[in-house]
Specification:
It contains 4 helices and no strands. It is mainly alpha-helical. The protein has 2 domains: 62 residues; 32 residues.
Length: 99
């Protein structure tokens, strides 16, 4: 994920919220304080979304870097799935291979 475009977009939206013209929700705090509170709320939401996206991408990267399954365990699982071996034989062979 490219973080730089996300930050630039967030900064532009914050500048528009504080200094742009247009109808803004009225909180009853005055025109400038209303805009600043809106900008802070928007920044908090953007920060939370960015943090969530970064954590999500880190978890996806760590999942893809896990150890590959050894081919003998893959073969054993396939044999068990086909019904070529029973559960006891599968579990015993799995224990033997993991040692």
């Amino acid at each position: 994920m490219k973080l730089k475009p996300f930050l630039l977009g967030t900064a532009a939206a914050l500048l528009l919220a504080v200094f742009g013209s247009g109808p803004w929700p009225c909180l009853g705090l005055g025109p400038w304080l209303d805009r600043i509170c809106l900008a802070l709320a928007f920044a908090a939401v953007c920060f939370a979304c960015g943090k969530w996206l970064l954590n999500r991408s880190k978890h996806a990267a760590s999942d893809s870097e896990s150890e590959p399954i050894p081919p003998e365990i893959v073969i054993l699982r396939e044999r068990y799935a086909r019904g070529a071996i029973d559960r006891e034989h599968y579990l015993q062979s799995l224990d033997d291979l993991k040692l």
